[in-house]
Amino acid sequence: MGIEIVDRQAFQICGYGIECTLQTWGYNAVRNPLFDKYRQADRAQAVEAVAAPGSGLYAAAWFISRNGDIMYMAGRELAPGQAAPEGALVRDVAADKWAVASFPADADIEKAWNEHYYHAGTTLGYAPNYGQDVWFEYYPEGIGGPYELWIAVAPVEE
After folding, report:
1. Of the four, 23, 125, 130, 136, which is 20 to 30 A from 61 by CA?
2. What ranges make up the beta strands (E) of 9-113?
3. d(CA 148, CA 114)
4. Spatial separation of the C-alpha atoms in residues 33 and 67, rounded to whole Å
């Protein structure tokens, strides 16, 4: 797992999500229901119609309460000037510096997240930026293909 530090401009992810808690959280437990929901009733087609050209699939997560409730959302980057389909969520992602790790399709996602989250950029002088409250997976070729894990980072001050 190589880690690259990337500066990324602000963007929006548009899609559909599921809520879970820290007690029910586990990538292997929530990923299939998430992507099943995304594919239901032509939701994926509606999102793709307003997506930025060439954008892959995102699976973004963030805390929605102080109790540890999490929103896990599948979607695509919203093209500038486009409106979200009815019932879809839109998540703003602020411009930031990100530690990005790439993985082959057969790499265990839960293991990859655990390793990447706690080691993201530390050897490069960065640590997770807890001020950015979203983290995400990016599937450039769609679900089932290789993927990237993105975590906001900040330089470690000595």
Report:
1. 125
2. 11-20, 57-63, 70-77, 89-93, 96-103
3. 13
4. 22
Task: Return the H-helix or E-strand segment holding 38.
Answer: helix 27-39
Query: Could you list the residue range(s) of the whole structural domain that residue 35 is in?
Result: 3-155
Written as six digits, the tokens of 27 are 């990538």
Model confidence, pTM: 0.89
What does the pLDDT look like over 7-38, one tens digit per residue?
999 999 999 998 887 777 666 677 777 888 88
pLDDT in tens, 52-69: 998 999 999 998 888 778
Distance CA 94, CA 125 (A): 21
Which among 18, 53, 45, 11 is positioned nearest to 32, based on CA atoms? 18
The CATH number covering residue 90 comes to 3.20.80.10
CA 47 to chain centre: 16
- Which residues does 101 contact at the CB level (< 8 Å), separation at least 6? 1, 2, 3, 4, 112, 116, 120, 148, 149
Q: Are 30 and 20 in contact (CB under 8 A)?
A: yes
